[in-house]
Design brief:
The protein contains 25 helices and four strands. It is 66% helix and 3% strand. By secondary structure, it is mainly α. The longest helix is centred in the N-terminal third of the chain and has 18 residues, at 36-53. Among the domains are: 8-254, no CATH class; 397-469. It has helices spanning 12-19, 36-53, 60-74, 108-113, 117-132, 135-142, 148-161, 165-169, 175-183, 187-203, 210-225, 232-235, 240-254, 266-279, 282-291, 296-309, 313-320, 330-343, 347-360, 365-377, 381-394, 399-411, 415-428, 432-445, 449-465; strands at 56-57, 85-89, 96-98, 103-107. A four-stranded mixed beta sheet has the order 1-2-4-3, sandwiched between helices.
Length: 469
């Protein structure tokens, strides 16, 4: 389940060019009247594109925090035709965007940059206001005819660009550049999203002044690091200071003239600790936690994870030994200590901690994944397979889960299932050569009706995904 970090924007221009090679179908052709059906199809293509090309964070502790915030905000919106699907991109830039058909992506860098749930909710409320007013759909209707597959790539350039090299490359006189310019939100769009986002934020029970604080943090990030690290709505439109002043005035009216700086909850601090310790550069994470003056239990956990990633095994042992230092993170503590001992091959000790984590948080499929790996190593194949299938129910496109399941089933003598899950792992890693190789083996081994049905299901996914390679 762990992902290697990569910079997603470097390949975007090539990706758009490749998407342009996908032939248009009648439903993809002219978007002069961008219907709900068109939006649903575009959203599906955009979602496949994002998940096939860019690294995501699949940790349930992180995802549930973002989902819960969006659920509260969504409850204040007018009726919407689409459900919300959340993805957390493993990217340091401070950004979030609501794509077509309810697909919302949040960068890990945004979660780390915001001080509290109220500030993260403010950015998401702003993005959801673009959805309710169909700003993107209106821009698509005004744009030139283009097939939906290419449009998905252009949208990725617009939403991920924010002044980046890839975003600028898209605007260099190409067809994609012209489309990108037409799809960007106008200044009026941004102001309307500010205004409505404040209403949604307040109705959801968050501090509306959190939007002003969030924008101030993003503005400061822009000052320190340049426009490429901030979202387009902060870097492409002038008058940001005036917008922040307006937002603060409206926010104070909404809350009766009071001003308050909301502190982050223990849960949000835990999410930030996990993201920084596990998913940012290891040396930087270690240095951060050596200076950290917050909760000592979070400092110890973050330092221990970073030390393990730096292969400072003895230091990590010292930091992670004993019981959890505070109740708020006990489940996460046991999970991460279990992962650490699994890495050292200390399976019994690891299993003890992972069992404790799952008793406290039965839905923590990350803990369940490592428990399943240990069961597989101990030869308890049926239990390992059952656990891994349950994990896939949560994260069906995680290549590491498929690879582990394939290895265990192959060793048990089920060659067909072993190669099938190896093929899924290669598919979701976008490894065309390996995927084709394993697919040939699956075709060769598919003899029974259930096997042929599973082969057909895989081939359908393969045909969709291979267009984005």
């Amino acid at each position: 389940m762990p992902r290697p970090k990569c910079k997603p924007l470097c390949c975007l221009l090539l990706l758009v060019a490749l998407l342009g090679m996908v032939p248009a179908t009648p439903t993809q052709a002219v978007l002069g009247d961008f219907s709900i059906e068109d939006e649903a199809e575009l959203g599906r293509k955009f979602n496949v594109l994002m998940r096939s090309r860019f690294p995501l964070v699949y940790d349930p502790i992180v995802l549930e925090q973002v989902r819960d915030i969006l659920t509260r905000v969504r409850g204040t919106l007018p009726p919407q035709p689409f459900d919300i699907t959340v993805g957390v991109l493993r990217d340091d830039s401070v950004n979030a965007f609501a794509a077509p058909a309810g697909y919302v992506f949040v960068n890990s860098g945004l979660i780390l940059a915001m001080h509290s749930e109220d500030e993260l909710a403010a950015v998401l409320a702003h993005e959801m206001a673009h959805v309710t007013e169909r700003h993107l759909a209106s821009n698509i209707e005004r744009s030139k005819a283009i097939n939906l597959a290419t449009l998905a790539g252009v949208l990725a350039g617009v939403m991920l660009g924010g002044g980046s090299d890839a975003g600028e490359a898209l605007a260099m006189g190409s067809m994609a550049g012209g489309q990108a310019a037409a799809l960007k939100y106008s200044r009026d769009d941004e102001r309307e999203a500010d205004h409505l986002g404040l209403q949604y934020l307040s109705r959801a029970g968050y501090d509306p002044e959190g939007m002003a604080r969030a924008f101030e943090r993003i503005k400061e990030r822009q000052r320190l690091t340049g426009a490429g690290s901030v979202p387009a709505y902060m870097s492409t439109h002038p008058g940001v200071t005036e917008r922040i002043d307006y937002i603060r005035q409206v926010a104070r009216r909404l809350q009766g003239g009071e001003s308050r700086d909301v502190e982050p909850s223990p849960r949000y601090r835990k999410v930030q600790t996990l993201l920084r310790a596990r998913y940012t550069e290891a040396r930087s994470a270690w240095n951060f936690f050596q200076r950290y003056e917050g909760d000592p239990c979070l400092r110890r956990l973050g330092s221990g994870i970073a030390a393990a990633r730096l292969n400072r095994v003895d230091r990590a042992k010292e930091l992670l030994k004993g019981g959890p230092p505070c109740e708020e993170i006990s489940s996460l503590w046991h999970r991460e200590v279990g992962r650490f001992h699994f890495r050292l091959g200390q399976f019994d000790l690891a299993l003890s901690h992972l069992d404790k984590a799952l008793r406290k948080s039965p839905e923590d499929y990350m803990a369940l994944f490592f428990q399943a790996r240990i069961l597989g190593e101990k030869g308890r194949t049926s239990q390992a397979v059952e656990a891994l299938r349950k994990v896939l129910g949560y994260v069906p496109q995680d290549p590491e889960v498929h690879r582990t399941l394939g290895r265990i089933m192959g060793r048990s003598g089920d060659a067909f299932s072993g190669y099938l899950h190896y093929a899924y792992a290669a598919l979701y890693r976008n490894n065309k050569e390996r995927c084709s190789k394993y697919l040939d083996k699956v075709r060769e081994l598919a003899r029974t009706s259930p096997q042929k049905r599973k082969l057909g299901e895989f081939e359908e996914k393969y045909e969709v995904r291979k267009k984005y390679w």
